[in-house]
Design goal:
Helices cover 63% and strands 16% of the residues. By secondary structure, it is of the alpha+beta class.
């Protein structure tokens, strides 16, 4: 049991990107989905370090993956979300996939995703 506690402690130190890489490696190695791995790891975390792991999972990068053929509407929404000027927002949209915001809370990431999708664009949360 001490080995499991140590493993959980080490896993809670991972960054969001490292955790995503770990999930992908587990999927490839054992043929399990990331959702199943989190479900297995979640109860093992218990109470102590579970809070730290949950905090990391609450931070997401919002990646614009495309304009969905509605470039002007998406550029307007990107400007509103990021505060970028017209030229910078246009460059970001045309250069997709590009990060819109990094390290944002889950609620804010979902809100941004909804706004971009309503404008016709596509977004990925990482």
């Amino acid at each position: 049991m001490a080995d499991i506690a140590k493993l959980v402690e080490e896993l809670s130190k991972l960054t969001v990107l490292e955790a995503a890489e770990l999930a992908t490696a587990l999927e490839e190695e054992w043929g399990v989905s990331a959702a199943a791995a989190v479900a297995v790891a979640g109860p093992a975390a218990g109470g102590g370090d579970g809070g730290a792991a949950a905090e990391e999972k609450d931070e997401f990068d919002v990646i614009l993956t495309g304009d969905g053929g509605k470039k002007i509407q998406v550029i307007k929404e990107v400007r509103a979300i990021t505060g970028l000027g017209l030229t910078e927002a246009k460059g970001l949209v045309e250069g997709a996939p590009k990060p819109l915001k990094e390290g944002v809370a889950k609620a804010e990431a979902e809100e941004i995703k909804g706004k971009i999708e309503a404008a016709g664009g596509t977004v990925e949360l990482k």
